Amino acid sequence: MENVVSSSPDYSIYGLVMHADPVVKGVLVILVLASVAVWAVILEKIIRLQRLNASIGRLEKAVHQAPDPGNRLVGSVLAAAKREDADADQRGESAAELREFRERAMRSALKSELRRLEVGLPLLATIGSAAPFVGLFGTVWGIVNSFTAIAQQKDTSLAVVAPGIAEALIATAIGLAAAIPAVVAYNQISVSLGRAYARGNAAIMELAKRPIGAQLGDEPVPLRAGKRF
Fold first, then answer.
1. What is the DSSP letter of 70?
2. Cβ distance 162 to 145 under 8 Å?
3. How far is CA 205 from CA 59, 82, 202, in A?
4. What CA–CA distance (Å, rounded) separates 186 from 192?
5. Would the pLDDT of 229 be above 50?
6. Distance CA 16, CA 4 (A)
7. Cβ atoms < 10 Å from Cβ of 129
8. ∠132-194-77 over CA atoms, to 5°?
9. Which of 63, 92, 110, 120 is the most exposed place for a label (fewest CB within 10 A)?
10. Is 47 helix (H, G, I), strand (E, B) or coil?
């Protein structure tokens, strides 16, 4: 009796995976690594988005009070404005033109900082779109093996068919487990970056109205007569 019990097949998920076809095992390994990569990117983006929101908040505060020179985003945006201010007299721009160039320079600096957070998003998009198909490949391969076992044993009972199909469906499940968080995270991060840019752009439009040099605590440089914002 003990020999019968010990030799009974293991139908747990672990047992099914360990007895799966080598191709199916390879698919499962790929999907597990993809899932780990997805969660690593998600955790990294959560931390960086929190820092970004804090930086955008400091940029918004810079409209009404002294800016934080130690903040990277604020420093980059205001440094871009200061470079435009330094070249204003040489170019002979009007006040309206200067404001336009300053806004453009500050927006470019803001976009450069936001692009740093876009690293990893293509990976999320790729895994989100490809993981279900990779899992489906493992499923199809496992089902083919199940039908092969039926043909070899000439037995259509569930005891012969069920294990192979169960192994195959595990690949689909893990593929979805990797893809769903990737798609959700990609959409949420994209929305968060869009909102951060909208907030930063609104602050930039206000900063561009301020006197030249005021952003970095310098003495404002007066504009030529008749050319005021």
1. T
2. no
3. 11, 15, 5
4. 10
5. no
6. 19
7. 13
8. 135
9. 92
10. helix
Per cent of the chain over pLDDT 70 is 72
3-state secondary structure of 71: coil
Q: Above 70 in pLDDT, residue 63?
A: yes
pLDDT at 215: 47
Contacts of 46 (CB under 8 A, 6+ apart): none
Let me know: does 41 contact 124? Beta carbons within 8 Å: yes
Tokens of 30: 């790929």
The angle formed by the CA atoms of residues 137, 139 and 142, to the nearest 5 degrees, is 110
Residue type at 201 in one-letter notation: N
Q: What is the pTM of this model?
A: 0.74
In whole angstroms, give the CA distance from residue 120 to residue 124: 7
pLDDT digits (tens, 9 = 90+) for 175-185: 999 999 999 99
Mean per-residue pLDDT over the chain, rounded: 78
Alpha-helix runs per DSSP H in 64-214: 72-86, 88-91, 95-117, 121-153, 158-207
Sequence spans of domains, the chain: 22-215
Longest CA pairwise span in the chain (Å): 104
54 contact partners, CB below 8 Å, separation of at least 6: none
Q: Which residue has the higher pLDDT, 211 or 56?
A: 56
